[in-house]
Design a protein that fits this description.
This protein has 388 residues and is α/β, with parallel strands linked by helices. The chain is built from 14 helices and 14 strands. A hairpin with a 6-residue loop joins β10 and β11. α4 crosses α9 and α6 runs parallel beside α7. The chain is globular, with a radius of gyration of 21 Å. The relative contact order is 0.15. Bound molecules: pyridoxal-5'-phosphate. Pyridoxal-5'-phosphate (PLP) binds next to α4.
Length: 388
């Protein structure tokens, strides 16, 4: 116990102690956090579908019919017709032969990497990949080579050195979660073909955001047939919970048989699956929601840029505002909160030293007035702190 106290004190002294915020209303553009009304600039509910009335109605209907829990793992008694339907629809959405749903995006990455590679293999992973990929690499027993963020020369060098491994798997986020930039997928696929490697893309932040129908980063780049393993999450734009892999029927069959995070966990509840199904349907019936999302992204970006803030070159619903210094970043975040804007500061160890930033995210259901109010607050607090 004493040891834990020491560790907690160490975290507090280093300014790394984390506390939970409490939401007391829906995940909406205007909501209540810790008793305060705020404009939400920190949600991954990119399409705003978690409060869409069509989606909610369908979830309520399914819960009325199926109840609240799944009662077993997928391979025992928890596999509903709803799970099957969602997997078929996700495969079609992503234009793959098959898909398999896991309980979270995190568990998806663990399941995939511990199944498709092993001791004789090499994973080549972008240095800014999500923590779930990093943990999955550790669990996989494969050798891991990290290449500098989106650096194709470094990726090529790692592929060159890795030629003697049984299998080489390049793993990258499609959209990087703290920087909002995109992996250079065309060049990555080209290198993969040259070096006989497989490509896995985690499109947690691209699904429902990028591409003409929201199918993600590979659709954005016109590469839908070229990615061997496509990972996505249902917990962000698709307004539910869970993750999935789209790929060949063989890949999906293998995962169903061997991925421990799929096998040894109770299946997602019917209401959660219903939320994904309804969100996916809504996106397919209303693709113009993507135009609204992108209008909002451009509006907020240009407002912040005009104020003189330095934005990282993101191309997604994630907009990182580079501040650099940890203290100043947190002061700006606190000042914004006082103005009713939730815009979290991100600092080490989540991002490298000296690159602390405010990371805001945009939703399709933000009203123009919400974004204008946010820009005004950034102007006021930024000037008070001498940042712009
Ligand atoms: C790139 C990436 N992969 C995976 C995950 C994990 O997904 P989930 O939250 O569904 O577990 C996240 C975010 O949380 C992410 O940003």
């Amino acid at each position: 116990m004493e040891e834990w106290g020491k560790e907690l004190n160490r975290l507090k002294e280093a300014g790394l102690y984390r506390k939970l915020r409490v939401l007391e209303d829906a995940q909406a553009p205007q909501t209540i956090v810790d008793g305060q009304e705020i404009i939400m600039l920190a949600s991954n509910n990119y399409l705003g579908l978690s409060i869409n009335s069509q989606v909610k109605d369908q979830v309520i209907e399914i819960v009325e019919d199926y109840g609240t829990s799944s009662g077993g793992s997928r391979l025992t008694t928890g596999n509903y017709d709803l799970h099957q339907e969602l997997e078929e629809k996700l495969a079609k959405f992503k234009k793959y032969e098959a898909a398999i749903v896991f309980n979270t995006g995190y568990m998806t990455n663990l399941g995939v990497l511990t199944t498709v590679v092993g001791k004789e293999d090499l994973i080549i992973s972008d240095e800014l990949n999500h923590a779930s990929i990093i943990d999955a690499c550790r669990l996989s027993k494969a050798e891991v080579a990290i290449y500098q963020h989106t650096n194709l020369d470094d990726l090529k060098a790692k592929l060159e050195v890795g030629q003697n491994y049984n299998r080489r798997l390049i793993v990258t986020d499609g959209v990087f979660s703290m920087d909002g930039d995109l992996a250079p997928l065309a060049a990555i696929v080209e290198l993969a073909r040259e070096y006989n490697a497989l490509v896995m893309v985690d499109d947690a932040h691209g699904t429902g955001v990028l591409g003409d129908s929201g199918a993600g980063s590979s659709q954005h780049f016109g590469l839908q047939d070229e990615i061997d393993i496509k990972v996505g999450t249902l917990s962000k734009a698709l307004a539910a919970e869970g993750g999935f892999v789209a790929g060949s029927q063989e890949l999906v069959d293998l995962l169903r048989n061997k991925a421990r995070s799929f096998i040894y966990s109770t299946a997602l509840a019917p209401g959660t699956i219903a939320a994904s199904l309804a969100s996916l349907q809504y996106l397919q019936d209303n693709p113009q929601i993507l135009t609204t999302l992108w209008r909002n992204i451009k509006l907020l970006k240009s407002g912040l840029q005009d104020l003189g803030y330095q934005l990282l070159p993101s191309n997604s619903a994630i907009i990182p505002i580079m501040i650099g210094d940890e203290e100043e970043t947190m002061k700006l975040s606190r000042g914004l909160l006082e103005e009713g804007i939730l815009a979290p500061g991100i600092r080490p160890p989540t991002v490298p030293e000296g690159t602390s930033r405010i990371r805001v995210t945009v939703m399709a259901n933000h009203q123009v007035q919400d974004l204008e109010k946010a820009v005004k607050a950034f102007s006021k607090v930024g000037k008070e702190l001498d940042l712009i």
